[in-house]
Specification:
With 268 residues, this protein is of the alpha/beta class. 39% of the residues lie in helices and 12% in strands. The longest helix is centred in the C-terminal third of the chain and has 20 residues.
Length: 268
């Protein structure tokens, strides 16, 4: 359903798609990849906004990156990893022993000392069957030494994939990590890039955000210089979104959605 909504609203133009240009030189320009660090097409290069030196944080960030997201041209995780020094990515559909030495050590420590407070958290909105606490509330419950050595885990994928990834990871994750959410209200309808300059895709409800923005918002709470870190990451994301907005073009609704719309009209 989410993919249908995305497709019905926009046809994201691909800077690497040679069918969009009749000029050979322009096509070559779109194909050329920046060699200065961002590894993006030169016409959407982010080297001017990505920090020259990765930002150091006391918080270690681990991201479970769904395999499908590796092929997505709007994925923010590759950019985020270039911005943060202590950020690692695990490619897969679930977290388990053997995926990450850092997470393995947290799991083993928790098994040996089950009464020890968790210093790891994972970002995901709470539901009735799996409630989450706000990240600021979690932080206030711990002392400074625990906060300064925290581990932040995020899940990168569509909302459908992210829910599946969290559910599949719980047998491992629940042993050493606490589920937290950001301090945002949720509603019925999502936003588009036209409603916010930080949204790359149609989201299922308000309060949703890209993985990069979610990590930035979380680091604002966790890090002593969190506000500055958040601002630097958001500026990179804002530039990325502005580039993409230049290549948006309207498209006709998909036949499947048209058929559904006619059916709904007939009922009225």
């Amino acid at each position: 359903m989410e993919d249908d909504l995305i497709g019905a609203l926009f046809d994201f133009w691909d800077p690497l798609n040679t069918t969009n240009s009749a000029a050979g030189e322009e096509v070559d320009s779109r194909r050329t990849i920046c060699a200065s660090g961002c590894e993006r097409p030169v016409n959407v290069c982010l080297c001017g906004t990505i920090p020259a030196e990765p930002i150091s944080t006391s918080t270690q960030v681990v991201i479970l990156h769904h395999p499908h997201e590796q092929r997505h041209k709007l994925a923010t995780v590759p950019v985020l990893c270039k911005c943060l020094r202590n950020c690692q990515t695990v490619i897969g559909r679930r977290l388990r022993l053997g995926d990450s030495p850092l997470l393995d050590s947290l799991y083993n420590t928790a098994v040996e000392n089950p009464n020890q407070p968790f210093r790891a958290i994972y970002l995901f909105p709470g539901i009735k069957s799996s409630p989450a606490i706000e990240i600021t509330e979690w932080k206030s419950s711990l002392d400074h030494s625990q906060i300064s050595n925290s581990v932040l885990i995020a899940f990168d994928g569509t909302w459908k994939h992210a829910k599946e990834m969290v559910h599949a990871s719980l047998p491992f994750l629940s042993k050493f990590a606490t589920q937290v959410c950001l301090d945002y209200d949720t509603g019925l309808e999502g936003e588009t890039i036209f409603d916010s300059d930080l949204i790359l895709r149609k989201e299922p409800f308000s309060g949703c955000m890209s993985t990069m923005e979610a990590v930035a918002r979380a680091l604002r709470v966790l890090e002593p210089s969190g506000l500055e870190i958040e601002q630097r990451l958001v500026e990179v994301l804002r530039t990325m979104v502005k580039f993409q907005a230049c290549y948006l073009k309207p498209m006709k609704p998909r036949p499947k959605l048209l058929k559904r719309g006619k059916g709904d009209a007939g009922k009225n």
